[in-house]
Amino acid sequence: MRRKQTDKPFGGQITTPPPAPWLSLPDAEQPAATETTVKLEDIALPQHQPRRYFDPQALKELVESVKLHGILQPLLVRPLGGGKYELVAGERRYRAGQEVKLETVPVVVRELSDDQAFQLALIENLQREDLNPVEETEGILHLLAIRLHCDVEAVKSLLYRMKNAHSKDEEQSKDSLNESRKNVSPNSEETESLDNISDNLNEETESRRNVSPKVDLEQSKTVQQVFESLGLMNWLSFTTKRLPLLNLPEEILMALREGKLEYTKAQALARVKDEELRKELLSLAITNDWSLSQIKEQIQANTSSEPPSSKTPNQIPERLKDITQRIKKRQLWNIPSKQKQLVNLLNKLEALLGDE
Predict the structure, then answer these.
(1) How far is CA 111 from CA 80, 88, 143, 205, in A?
(2) Quick one: which of 189, 195, 336, 347 is 20 to 30 A from 228 by CA?
């Protein structure tokens, strides 16, 4: 299954393309940009790049376009000194240029810090919808690490502490509000309105956040600013829904990175604890392009187990019928590790029939 491609730089007539989205930042000061041409060999790839997987077929198509028309949209680079540059955005075009063996390529040169460069690379890929969920999650974590001046593991720890503090504040606010409502007399003129009570509780919650020894206020503000600048999701949604994604089994993470599997399907398959069965179901799901409901059916069929019980001869017809239905539902003949056992059992049944 190919990844959905939204980047079509060579569609339609060959004209000067509009400015790329990364040529203007919504944030504060704009570093001066210079458009020029440089040798491809003078451009180095960055140490950290949000995008790791490039669809081979899409890259092949881009190579053919570059052969015919060259690179129409300039790469974004930053100077390293000594006539060398580091690529910030446009790695697909860079790779295509290498494949075609171009000597020079058009570039926009801009003075950028590490975090500015990475954020621009991340934003460009996000705007083009080029990143898969894994790359997007890892990219955001790395951007946070740059902004917070710490490593990725420290960022994860901070996000989970923020989440725990948020949950605790929510619970305390609900408890306090419920307690206040109990004490409110609807006929008393001296009683505060529920709106005032709610405002007071919000102030108390904010106060608790400001003095919490577990979460640094400046760090939490930086985290919120990063997510606001990206405009994708808030930090709480990212922590709750995206961070667990990185705990998925490696083979499922790889399928996600390569665009072979949707996020919801990956989550369903990751719940299968049997590693061998999980890998087989993953392979079948990709090969047969199973829907999420089909994947769930196969998981249920292959993982449901009934405790052994003593059956009487009178129950044999019922058991045969049940087993036949379950074999069909599980499609055991499609699972390599089960095929040999299935053949052996069928041989035994055929031998029994031959004794008649």
Answers:
(1) 9, 11, 18, 42
(2) 195
pTM of the model: 0.57
- Work out the widest C-alpha separation in the chain, in whole angstroms: 94
pLDDT digits (tens, 9 = 90+) for 192-218: 454 554 454 454 444 444 434 467 899
- The region that residue 107 occupies, defined by phi over 0 for left and psi between -120 and 50 for alpha, beta otherwise, is beta
Residues whose CB is less than 8 angstroms from the CB of residue 196 and which lie 6 or more positions away in sequence, other chains included: none
The DSSP element (H or E) to which 155 belongs, if any, is: helix 152-183
CA torsion through residues 225, 226, 230, 235, sign: negative
**CATH 3.80.30.20 for the 27-131 domain, yes or no:** no
Dist. CA 319–CA 356, nearest whole Å: 21
The residue assigned the tokens 């056992």 is 341
Torsion of CA 247, 140, 216, 157, to 10 degrees: 10
- How is the chain split into domains, by residue range? 27-131, 132-181+204-247, 260-304+315-354
Q: Are 48 and 91 in contact (CB under 8 A)?
A: no
